[in-house]
Amino acid sequence: MKLLILLVIVLGLVAAVQLSKVYQLSIKLRGKREEDISEADNRLNGGAFLAFMAVFYSSFIFLLARYGSYGTPPASEHGIAVDRLMNFNMAIIFTVFFIVNTLLFWFAAKYYYRPERKARFFAHDNRLELVWTVIPSVVLAVIIAFGLRTWNQMTDEASDDALRVELYAKQFDWTARYPGNDGEFGLANYNLITPMNALGIVTAEGIAEALVEIEDKIAKVEREILYEKGHLLAERETLMAQLEGDSHGHNGHGHASHD
């Protein structure tokens, strides 16, 4: 099966090359240059732009209707505000998207090249400069103001009846810690974090486990110190013995020279 698919691909490439050669020969037979394009070809390309725009927009709208939901329902008041800001930005993006692309395709279809028509050239236009400078600036200012307003609402002081929650962030995980019935959080210490106590809640059992772990670490360090001490003492004895041997050797040579 794979060999058959490969054969079809190769034959398709060969056919495409041969068709290209036939097209080039037909151009030479008609006495036309390769860069010469007829008005019919230009008109066809212009219509193709409009057809592509229709397919492009249809596909976009279909995908938007099918997979348009980009988030889960909000679980807090802040989520509602963030979704509102997101929808506002997406509305602006979609509006600009349709306007700009429609103008691009429409201009390509309407103003295709015609020998009798000459394009107008101008180096500068104050009105155009004003339009594409002021409008984006105003839109961006509105987006920034809306975003700052939402951000200030999210980071403002909580109300008196707000529920305080501590969040512990991990990779691919959020762990929430809620206060007790009195509205206060229990003590927590990162030194008490273990696989069974992921938040480091201070409990008698947790403290006992931490103390046992500390004692084990102390014992391990003491064993390492004793091992290192023994190694250093042995090295010292070796060096002292070598020093004494060298001293006796020098003394012996000295007496022999004196005699």
Strand composition percent:
under 5%
Approximate shape:
extended
- How many beta-strand segments? 2
Q: What is the rounded distance between the termini?
A: 103 Å
Number of helices: 5
Biggest pleated sheet: 2 strands, antiparallel
Specify the helix fraction band. Answer: 55-70%
Q: Provide mean pLDDT, rounded.
A: 84
Rg calculated over all Cα atoms:
41 Å
Element pattern in H and E: HHHHEEH
Query: Residue ranges: pLDDT <50 for 5 or more in a row?
Result: 255-259
The structure class reads mainly alpha
Strand order of the largest sheet: 1-2
Walkthrough of the structure:
- The chain is mostly helical and 259 residues long.
- Among the domains are: 44-115; 176-250, no CATH class.
- It has helices spanning 2-29, 39-67, 77-110, 126-155, 204-258; strands at residues 166-170, 173-177.
- The protein has a two-stranded antiparallel sheet with strand order 1-2.
- The longest helix is centred in the last third of the chain and has 55 residues, at 204-258.
- The protein is extended and about 110 Å long.
- The N and C termini lie far apart (103 Å).
